[in-house]
Design brief:
4-stranded parallel sheet, two-stranded antiparallel ribbon
Length: about 190
Amino acid sequence: YAMTQRNMDERSKKIVFVSNCILNANNKVAEFARYPGMFTQVVEILDKYGAGLIQMPCPEVLHIGNQRWWHDRNLYNNAGYRRFCRKLAEQMADYMENYAIAGYDILAILVCDGSPTCGLTVSSHYENGGGHPEEPVRSLREKPGIYMEELMKEMDARGITAPPLYGLKMDDKEKTNEQIIEEFDCFIRDRTCE
């Protein structure tokens, strides 16, 4: 009894893995930040439900830097970048395994839909990529980003049951931040509402 008492504290044992740029807009490629520093409403929602946050690394900043040009999925889709993303994904899967051993609940993996790296259901594609740089003809394709593909492969290879995945619709210019947050709040509340 004394041992159990000693180890008790207020933690919820609930975790959400979050794309880096949701908590740090300074890592977004130029012209894509929708908020000054962090998407504070996301943090407020997760705090409301007692969730801790793991800020995943930003593969794009670590690989190319903060002064990178806009890139798309087809530019990042190469062996070297995939290997780099795989190493980062391995670290995140280590966290997931450690939390599972300790009985924690991973509520979600929260990413930026539309990102060529962290998109969940869609990622950016340049129709006119390659050759001399010009104004991109950009579209969204129904494919996850490169990092998300590698993270899902790593979880699958280790037999980690994928937690609910959610892509904030950050590249949807028709949605306001309030609409994006409302949809996310509904998702995290019961993991089924959209």
